[in-house]
User: Fold CRE-CLEC-65 protein from Caenorhabditis remanei.
Amino acid sequence: MKMRRFLGVFLLCLAISTTLSVSDRRCGSDVTRLWLDVVIIVDNCSIMNLNLVYETISGLFNKNLQIGTGYTDPRSTRVGFITYNYNATDVADFYKLQSWADLDSQIQRLKMTPLARTTLSKMDTALYAAINMINSTAGFRDNYKKMVIVFTSVHGSYQKNPPKDVSKILKARGIPVVTVNTGSSSDTQSYLKNIASDNMAYAMADGNATQEILKAMTDTNCFCQSQWAQYQYPLYAPQNRYGTCLISTNDMVSDRETARHFCHQHFQNGYLVNELDQQKRAYNFAYLNSISASPVNAFYNGLVTLNGVWFWDQPDGRPMLPLDPNSGAAPQRSACVADMKYSDGTTAWTPVSCTNKFRFICEKVACDTDNYCENA
Ligand SMILES: *[C@@H]1O[C@H](CO)[C@@H](O)[C@H](O)[C@H]1NC(C)=O
Ligand SMILES: *[C@@H]1O[C@H](CO)[C@@H](O)[C@H](O)[C@H]1NC(C)=O
Ligand SMILES: *[C@@H]1O[C@H](CO)[C@@H](O)[C@H](O)[C@H]1NC(C)=O
Ligand SMILES: *[C@@H]1O[C@H](CO)[C@@H](O)[C@H](O)[C@H]1NC(C)=O
Assistant:
């Protein structure tokens, strides 16, 4: 009886999993393979709430994470520390901590250091110090994303410029700024919200700060090289980005085979774009139209047929991906299909002659914890 019920549940799970929709890969999130340069800033004025700060910081760095540089696998993370009150102190620059043990003992030392006597807390001094720390490493590890994480419980003052204006300099350079309110003041929380990047103002008091910061770190580590667009939905929704990158050469049209060859020859590990679900199709149209001077109503995707079976194009050396019925039904008798948008706004995979010339999109996997990229 029990066994039969178990089997029933098992079969039900199977049934559910086969009807699950397919979609593009999510960003890699292996916390042992982050490759980042992180500046950690900790307020140490006398009224700072340090509760759980160093436990949270410890929790960010998995014991198997390579700290520092010089490893065979280039996926390693450098960590710098700055403390501040009315002035900022560089506790550790990007060159100091060269192993997980170094990092751990630095954290323990900071934990033992008493707070400063002053109540003054001027975050702009620390953000400027972070900019200098990042600048001083320019030319080395430029392909590694930088990020800044600030811990404070205090709505402080400033020395030269409001902290939100200094953080803008970082954000404009593509460097995310995470803030963590270590106290319970809602005034501090709204002050920090203006300093942090979108959706990166966290609080110790709600949720799991370690988990939130780690998510921000793996998200930051997931990016596309210059000229490539990162698949996200809707078109400008960095909070919902996927681990694939797209590119389309301006106004270039070609027949299907030339398009496919172009993606493989011009881009390392490139292939013709996949369209695993309706959302990706909507994105592909939106992306092409966002970069084109005139409306694009047709383009080639990577759907190809071999002996009557449909597959998605994949990088050289990788087997092609069979078309999942949940992605859509391919036409019965045609060698080539193109994405078409009709006058009523609907879109469909439409049989076309393979010699028709259309726009096309190339795709490749994003740089993330699973895929190291030599160039930024
Ligand atoms: C703050 O620190 C900088 C650099 O360490 C130093 O030049 C400056 O004099 C300090 N300012 C104050 C007010 O202590
Ligand atoms: C706090 O700040 C003072 C002055 O900047 C510094 O000497 C001290 O080491 C700092 N303490 C901690 C815990 O960071
Ligand atoms: C840091 O580097 C950026 C980009 O190279 C530059 O624009 C900026 O002026 C530098 N800032 C400082 C304080 O050196
Ligand atoms: C917070 O998240 C981290 C990382 O996922 C986890 O190790 C830790 O146990 C969580 N803490 C709590 C209190 O849930």
Summary: The first strand starts at residue 36 and ends at 43. Residues 1-18 have pLDDT under 50 and may be disordered. Residues 36-220 form a domain with the Rossmann fold fold (CATH 3.40.50.410). The radius of gyration is 25 Å.
